[in-house]
Amino acid sequence: MSHVSGIHHVTAYAHDPQENIDFYTGVLGLRLVKQTVLFNNPSKVFRGPTMYHFYYADGTGTPGSVITFKPHHSIQKGEVGRGQATATAFTIPDGSVDYWVDRLDGFDEVSLYPVTERFGRTVIQFQDHDGQPLELITGESDVEPWEEGPVPAEHALRGFHGVTIQPHNPRLTAEVLELMGYQRIDTEPTPQDGDWMRYRVEDGANHGEYIDLYTEPNMHEGSWGYGTVHHVAFRVADDDQQMALRQRLRDAGHRPTSMKDRNYFHSIYFREPNGVNFEIATDPPGFLHDEPVEELGETLMLPPFLRDRREEVEETLADITTP
Prior knowledge:
Blueprint: E1 7-14, H1 17-27, E2 31-37, E3 52-57, E4 66-71, E5 84-92, H2 97-105, E6 111-112, E7 116-118, E8 121-127, E9 133-138, E10 160-166, H3 170-179, E11 182-189, E12 195-201, E13 210-215, E14 229-236, H4 239-251, E15 260-261, E16 265-271, E17 277-285, H5 310-316
Parallel strand pairs: 1-4, 5-9, 10-13, 14-17
Antiparallel strand pairs: 1-14, 2-3, 3-4, 5-10, 6-8, 7-8, 8-9, 11-12, 12-13, 15-16, 16-17
């Protein structure tokens, strides 16, 4: 039976394109593997502001290492809260905790919290310049670090550890995760009267394999805007597996979209019962099909329906400097 093999990517909102690039490449040491724009319907793309869409990852854009952002000054400030994916966690080596605490503490734009533990792993919690919650969690990963950024390779991020979701009703979210191939592997209460439930995908890759459900009775409602996650994308091997999973979701009463061609993967979308936006994305064709690996992220890449309008598109976008 077809199921997902972990997280494919996480997409969030941001405020300023240049600040976003500077933080995720200059502070976290990720590689900008793709700069493009939102893939809207051609008839609608110029009705509002044209937005960049940035993809940051390891050196090649391995699924399960990719965090993407939609940055624009017109986006309102969001509020992280219940009914959202609330934190994105990357894996770091066991011996890199002190390095990252010292590094993050040296940047004024970072809000750093005391180091803690969860499910036996060390967790560094912090927020980026937009208030986006992020975590670095110790563990093993098969993702090779990006070696040409400002972070030494021995300490560099190694793809996703997982994502935290704060649902209204965790049972309903858990049912969807189990439908996609996840199993609950652990629970952990906290002193703040909240509870953690950890889910791991069966037979997945050795990265991006965890989803944590966190329930806190007094947590406020989240609202969309910069500093919040737009959706969590789960990976499947190909179109056939995606369609099989789409049918299973439909049979269970969910309403996934038709397939959308995102140029670097094919996607379907649906909202799980608590309103969190989920995507199912294919591994192919990947980020190398329109740029050589040594030139990833250096050029604005446009979808086919916008390539003959490059000058028009570029005039609507903010000037940026890439690494």
